[in-house]
Amino acid sequence: MSDSDEKMNSWLAVRNFQREIIRVSTQKLGRKLTAKEKRFVTSRGGFVALEMILDTVRAGNPVEIEEYLNSE
């Protein structure tokens, strides 16, 4: 596998993680994310950070999720 293939695979994995966070958040909130909330998710590129965000939105109720996604 070339270096560019590995970068593409990593980028795709990050994008899939971000999409899943947005999907779960949207479902639990019952609405689309605001630009600020979406930016909170898409500005992260590390797997540990994304995993923590996904765990938080999966476990949280709508109020907690909204507060979390707007915490910056």
Taken as a percent bin, the fraction of beta residues is under 5%
Number of helices, where a helix is a run of at least 4 consecutive DSSP H or I residues: 4
Largest β-sheet summary: none
**Uncertain parts:** none
**Percent helix:** over 70%
> How confident is the prediction overall: mean pLDDT?
92
Order of helices and strands: HHHH
Number of domains: 1
Structure characterization notes:
- This protein has 72 residues and is mostly helical.
- It has one domain (3-69).
- Helix content is 78%, strand content 0%.
- The protein has 4 helices and no strands.
- The longest helix is centred in the first third of the chain and has 27 residues, at 3-29.
- The radius of gyration is 13 Å and the shape is elongated.
- The termini are far apart.
